[in-house]
């Protein structure tokens, strides 16, 4: 199948788009990357999404408008994939993660998750079936619904020698650890770009481009100690988190009473991510880390990670055949392929679910066969069809 994968992460910085040729060969899945790109969120949509995220309050009207706006933006991204990336302008399936606006975790257990981006808009724009809502089934089975990246990571890294970790640095950092003779496991280590983006917004910048501010600043041990004291870091895996915890109020609480220079704040937030990732890898004997996500474009982050991970090596997903900016979109293409064929995708040892589940729901193609033109009622002929009340 030619599958279009669509993803927007917790940084809400655009829609990642990837097209893959995916097929089964016995117990092996063959994925050929065809092309990838990115689509901007139109107009004020990004601001509207960020304004609705915790700790902000919102209305059901806002939720409805966001669901439609995000759905239409994802539909435009899917059309871009068809027109610019797909061979012959054709594909078989779209897999859309949508935009996470709330991930409900209480006392370490995930109780629900909400991704917006109405898939009907994608089906109408492309005429293709759409797989969406890819986290909820795992949560219903007792899992965290995250990190879904573990599905691709475990299949991709199986058979390697040593203990390898796949690291994704999006708004949140997540880690998948694969080692011969041991069940794989995965978890969110904590914030990656989420707090850095908040700091950048406070100085009127979209991001710390090229890590310039972090590289000029100095790590503040007092602030770093406050940040690292959050109980989340000590919780055992599997675990997941998001902007519901690592938001503006979280940062303000850590900064309370401290006079921290702007550049020092960036340097300290980089040290927080690098340190918590390195601690997790060291605790599990990781010898090689394969990185992806927007954080890999931040030289300050990669320098701090290399120093913290040593003697373990930090490599890029590009060294293993996947563009680090497109890995999440290829992940959702893979999940869509598995769901379309009725195959489970979530890995219980990684998400904490009781069993492996088939992820998501399917919105049918927009051009079905001719509809029926009549309904005929047939009298019941067996006792089993009689009305019963209880």
TrEMBL record:
The gene is anmK. GO terms for biological process: 1,6-anhydro-N-acetyl-beta-muramic acid catabolic process; amino sugar metabolic process; peptidoglycan turnover. Catalyzes the specific phosphorylation of 1,6-anhydro-N-acetylmuramic acid (anhMurNAc) with the simultaneous cleavage of the 1,6-anhydro ring, generating MurNAc-6-P. Is required for the utilization of anhMurNAc either imported from the medium or derived from its own cell wall murein, and thus plays a role in cell wall recycling. Its EC number is 2.7.1.170. Pathway: Cell wall biogenesis; peptidoglycan recycling; Amino-sugar metabolism; 1,6-anhydro-N-acetylmuramate degradation. This is Anhydro-N-acetylmuramic acid kinase. It holds the Pfam family AnmK. Residues 381-390 have a biased composition (Polar residues).
């Amino acid at each position: 199948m030619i599958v279009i994968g669509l993803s927007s992460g917790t940084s809400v910085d655009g829609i990642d788009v990837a097209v893959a040729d995916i097929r089964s060969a016995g117990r092996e899945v063959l994925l050929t990357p065809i092309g990838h790109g990115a689509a901007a969120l139109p107009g004020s949509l990004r601001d509207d999404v960020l304004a609705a995220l915790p700790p902000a309050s919102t209305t059901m009207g806002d939720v409805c408008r966001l669901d439609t706006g995000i759905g239409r933006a994802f539909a435009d991204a899917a059309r871009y994939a068809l027109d610019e990336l797909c061979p012959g302008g054709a594909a078989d399936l779209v897999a859309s993660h949508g935009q996470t606006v709330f991930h409900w975790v209480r006392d370490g257990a995930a109780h629900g998750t909400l991704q917006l981006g109405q898939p009907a808009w994608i089906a109408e724009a492309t005429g293709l079936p759409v797989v969406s809502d890819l986290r909820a089934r795992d949560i219903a089975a007792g899992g965290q619904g995250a990190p879904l990246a573990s599905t691709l990571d475990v299949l991709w890294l199986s058979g390697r020698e040593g203990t390898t970790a796949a690291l994704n640095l999006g708004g949140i950092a997540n880690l998948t650890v694969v080692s011969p003779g041991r069940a794989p496991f995965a978890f969110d280590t904590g914030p990656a770009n989420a707090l850095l983006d908040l700091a950048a917004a406070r100085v009127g910048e979209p991001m710390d481009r090229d890590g310039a501010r972090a590289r000029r600043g100095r790590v503040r041990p007092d602030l770093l100690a406050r940040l690292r004291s959050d109980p989340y870091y000590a919780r055992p895996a599997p675990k997941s988190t998001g902007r519901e915890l690592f938001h503006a109020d979280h940062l303000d609480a850590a900064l309370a009473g401290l006079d921290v220079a702007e550049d020092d704040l960036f340097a300290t937030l980089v040290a927080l991510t690098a340190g918590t990732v390195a601690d997790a890898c060291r605790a599990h004997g990781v010898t090689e880390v394969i990185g992806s996500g927007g954080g890999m474009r931040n030289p300050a982050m990669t320098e701090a990670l290399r120093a913290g991970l040593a003697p373990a090596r930090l490599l890029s997903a590009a060294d293993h055949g996947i563009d680090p900016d497109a890995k999440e979109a290829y992940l959702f293409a893979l999940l869509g392929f598995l769901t379309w064929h009725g195959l489970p995708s979530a890995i219980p040892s990684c998400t904490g679910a009781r069993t492996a589940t088939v992820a998501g729901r399917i919105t049918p193609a927009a051009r079905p066969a001719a509809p029926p033109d009549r309904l005929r009622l047939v009298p019941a002929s067996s006792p089993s069809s009689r009305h019963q009340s209880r």
